[in-house]
Amino acid sequence: MKPRLFMTREVFGDVIDKLSGYFDVEVWDKFKEPPYGVLLDKARGVDALFTLLTDKIDCNLLSSAPRLRIVAQMAVGFDNIDVKCASELGVYVTNTPGVLTEATAEHTWALILSIARRIVEADTYVRWGEWWRRGTAWHPLMLLGVELQGKTLGVVGLGRIGGRVAEIARAFNMRVIYYDVVRRRDLEEKLGIEYVELEKLLEESDIVTLHTPLTPETKHLINEERLRKMKKTALLINTARGAIVDTEALIKALREGWIAGAALDVFEGEPLNPNHPLTSLKNVILTPHIASATLETRRKMAELAAENLIAFSQGEIPPTLVNPEVVQKRRPGFA
Ligand code: GLV
């Protein structure tokens, strides 16, 4: 009998077909994620889970799933999974690093350029007739943005994505400074970037971009006190996780002009309610957690998650294992 796999969302058909060669697959085919109760119920009866970042895989769920051996997440972030608990229970956890670096870095730059050059505002200006109503074709002071050249980009978190964002900054002739808990001297040299403490980064950057995972240490890393340290002209970009920023403090900062604007792909609560105060601010650009959403990347993410599951089913250590300590607890495989 094949091991049983529950996939919490539909992915590309050929990836599901491939997995079906190794697993008895059940797919949650709704657009919306399975409610926690359903997830709990499904987890009880399966050997493997294919999850997304919106699925809450907590210790309660892991402990009530006696057959569960692996949780293969289709995302690089895994703050939705209690990894410590999984390791203790001998459950393998995998993610999809690397394959989404480019797409996420590109989206970060799309946001930087859009907020710096007021692209969304400008589109609205044309589309909703303001340009036409005013009757002014061109004005020296119309919709002025800011130039990137010569400005300072502050990268918080110099992992794969932060590193690539920093690398692209060179094409815009920007100065790049970064902060991370681990100093990356190799990259400092290679990319011509400079390490600074977080407070200094916030004080000196014209654009601050966040690329840290969400952990208890990074929750509300960007809080009121730190937002107050930023330049009044600064822009904040977040394509990492919403909770790295204290949203209430950010709204105050944007309303009261402590900073000039923000471009956000991630939020403390997703999906974002259209009545949320953020949606009424003009100096903000909002996208619905789509930084990795290119056809190429989503395919690679699904394939890597499947590869992890298949390797595990063959008794191999999955290629992108999050909790290597689990190997001491239990060998890979369903036997
Ligand atoms: C997306 O947010 C991811 O973690 O892959």
Describe the structure.
The protein is an alpha/beta fold. It folds into 2 domains: 4-99 and 295-329, NAD(P)-binding Rossmann-like Domain (Rossmann fold, 3-Layer(aba) Sandwich); 101-286, NAD(P)-binding Rossmann-like Domain (Rossmann fold), CATH 3.40.50. The chain contains 14 helices and 12 strands. The chain has helices spanning 13-20, 36-44, 59-63, 83-89, 101-116, 119-127, 130-134, 160-169, 185-191, 198-204, 224-229, 247-256, 295-313, 326-329; strands at residues 4-7, 24-27, 48-51, 70-73, 92-94, 152-156, 175-179, 194-195, 207-210, 235-238, 261-264, 284-286. Helix 8 links the parallel strand 6 and strand 7. Helix 1 (13-20) runs parallel beside helix 13 and helix 5 packs across helix 8. The longest helix is centred in the last third of the chain and has 19 residues, at 295-313. The protein is globular, with a radius of gyration of 22 Å. The termini are close together. The mean pLDDT is 98. The structure holds glyoxylic acid. The site of glyoxylic acid has 6 residues, from loops. Glyoxylic acid (GLV) binds next to loops.
Pick out its properties.
single chain, 335 residues, Rossmann fold, 2 domains, 7-stranded parallel sheet, binds glyoxylic acid
Please write out the topology.
Elements: E1 4-7, H1 13-20, E2 24-27, H2 36-44, E3 48-51, H3 59-63, E4 70-73, H4 83-89, E5 92-94, H5 101-116, H6 119-127, H7 130-134, E6 152-156, H8 160-169, E7 175-179, H9 185-191, E8 194-195, H10 198-204, E9 207-210, H11 224-229, E10 235-238, H12 247-256, E11 261-264, E12 284-286, H13 295-313, H14 326-329
Parallel strand pairs: 1-2, 1-3, 3-4, 4-5, 6-7, 6-9, 7-8, 9-10, 10-11, 11-12
Helix pairs in contact: 1-13, 5-8
Glyoxylic acid binds near residues 75, 76, 77 and 100.
